[in-house]
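comment on this one:
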Amino acid sequence: MTGPDLPPVAVSCGEPAGIGPEIIVKARRALGASLPFFAIGAARHFADHGAISEIASPDEARAVPGDILPLLAQDIAGDAPPGKPDPQSAAGVIAAIARGVALVQDGAASALCTAPIHKKALKDGAGFAFPGHTEYLAHLAGVDRVVMMLACETLRVVPVTIHIPLAEVPGALSEALLEDTIRITRAALIRDFGLPAPRLAIAGLNPHAGEGGAMGREEITRIAPVLDRLRGEGMDIAGPLSADTMFHAAARARYDAALAMYHDQALIPIKTLDFSGGVNLTLGLPFIRTSPDHGTAFDIAGQGVADATSMIAALRMAWNMARSRVQDG
């Protein structure tokens, strides 16, 4: 199977009261038929933003003209007017995600791209028991550990710990977690990004990477032993490095992905470099998942002013990753 023959990318609608439907339609207009994808959702949430064509199966998406969005209809209850999430929509939104996963797992779609969800609406309306998309996708895939990567043209970065208070990071930062995160990240760089020998840069936890123990000992007791062990397996790993000198242009040229120890240490650099074009990826799943690196933006929903740059980047990355997997065999 060659790149052009790959199944289309599935795009779940996300929170219908947010900007998801709008940016999906805008992405279709921007990309046309050059990148085949279809949306999963209710027609009424997309129709105000542009032309749609309902399809019965993913393989019909390629026949839809490039200025029209192919839509696989999903029943979603509730009104969900722009900017006002409706808990009645929750079950349908969750079902759209699960349907996208099933299509990718069955080979009918090459990847899944997810529009932003509103977790409170899903919890209030359907008892959604997961912290977010990532955990739900891991549950559907039956995997125990996944990794979040944020990527743009100039940087790929992975936070080892994610949505926990800063005070809890040192306790959560175990050798097992760090090693798993490195292994999952490296495997994805090889399989999904076509990098046969990935170069990884690992940040320290403390200022100046602990400065030899003067500013903290986690680098000595937890981080360095893992890195030494993995270097012994032949991995190209630099670190632990001082995080404040890892993200300028010359430093970024020396690695293919950076691993940071906590959320803001990872996300501040990429949001500074490319606030609109960042992509959220879930590594470690048996299928490809990307997402725009932003939320539902209720404050501008329905106004026609939402920026689709991140959605376009997420679709392109999903497609390129799918092509890389095919070429890798």
Notes: The chain has two domains: 1-145+283-329, 154-273. The two ends are 10 Å apart (CA to CA). The chain has eleven helices and twelve strands. Residues 154-273 form a domain with the Isopropylmalate Dehydrogenase fold (CATH 3.40.718.10).
